[in-house]
Specification:
Layout (H helix, E strand, L loop, with lengths): L1 H18 L4 H6 L1 H4 L2 H15 L8 H27 L5
């Protein structure tokens, strides 16, 4: 259950970085990285896996890859679902 909560928190953090108005100025620094939920999700997951925040139990390097890939995929899926249901807030 806590693993699901951790992954949901990573997806939420990714969507806040990509879509939240609070990070608008930060997104202007690296638009290619921070305007894409899949790209930003990968890096959020890599940092969480490498730092041990979300351990997958395979060592820090492999955890970074596994958690990064999972967060990237799930953040992209969640973003697509929200855009389909609510519309694109950037339009």
């Amino acid at each position: 259950m806590t693993d699901l909560l951790h992954v949901a928190a990573l997806v939420g953090a990714t969507l806040i970085v990509v879509r939240g108005t609070i990070f608008r100025r930060v997104r202007a620094l690296w638009p290619a990285l921070l305007k894409c939920s899949q790209c930003a999700g990968a890096w959020v997951g890599v940092v969480a896996g490498a730092s041990g925040v979300v351990p997958a139990g395979h060592g820090r390097i492999l955890d970074a890859v596994v958690v990064g890939a999972a967060t990237s995929f799930l953040a992209q899926a969640a973003d697509a679902i929200f855009i389909h249901l609510l519309g694109d807030p950037l339009d």
